[in-house]
Amino acid sequence: MMKLVSGGEIKFADPFGIGVMPSLVLTVFAEVVCAVLVGIGLKTRLATIPLLITMLTAVFIVHINDPIATQEKGYLYLLIYLILLVKGGGRFSFDYLILGKKG
After folding, report:
1. Which has the closest alpha carbon to 10: 31, 24, 22?
2. Residue 8 maps to a domain
3. Are 88 and 41 in contact (CB under 8 A)?
4. 13 in any annotated domain
5. Distance of alpha carbon 48 from alpha carbon 87, whole angstroms
6. Which residue, among 33, 65, 58, has the nearest Cα to 47 in the 3D structure?
7. Is the Cβ–Cβ distance between 76 and 83 less than 8 Å?
């Protein structure tokens, strides 16, 4: 457990045994930085990899014993990230507008 400045505790999973803080930092990086990159279409395929790892971890490790209704959103995001990994950002992405390619 990590202590917050206000005195509360952060409860966050450590599925790979690297520690609570590194797991939290990696998840925040994926869900903030990589999600913004995907949203604007910059390095879409590369940015979906950490997001896929986060969703795979959430669905198949952290929430494996939860009911399917709890896992449903994770499966949905996982499917979307897989499609983006395969298809790329498309013609409305920054990669296409700047470089003329679908990366």
Report:
1. 24
2. no
3. no
4. no
5. 11
6. 33
7. no
Q: Does a structural domain hold residue 1?
A: no
Domain that holds residue 86: 18-99
Length of the chain: 103
> What is the C-alpha separation between 98 and 10, in angstroms, rounded?
41
In a domain, 39, yes or no: yes
Beta bridge partners of residue 25, listed in sequence order: none
Query: Which amino acid is it at 93?
Result: S
In a 10 Å sphere around its CB, with 0-12 CB exposed, 13-18 middle and 19+ buried, how is residue 45 labelled? middle
Span 50-63, pLDDT tens digits: 999 999 999 999 89
pTM above 0.85, yes or no: no
Number of folded domains that form the chain = 1
* Phi, psi at 2, each rounded to 5°: -110, 145
pLDDT tens track for 55-100: 999 999 989 999 999 999 999 999 999 999 999 888 889 988 888 7
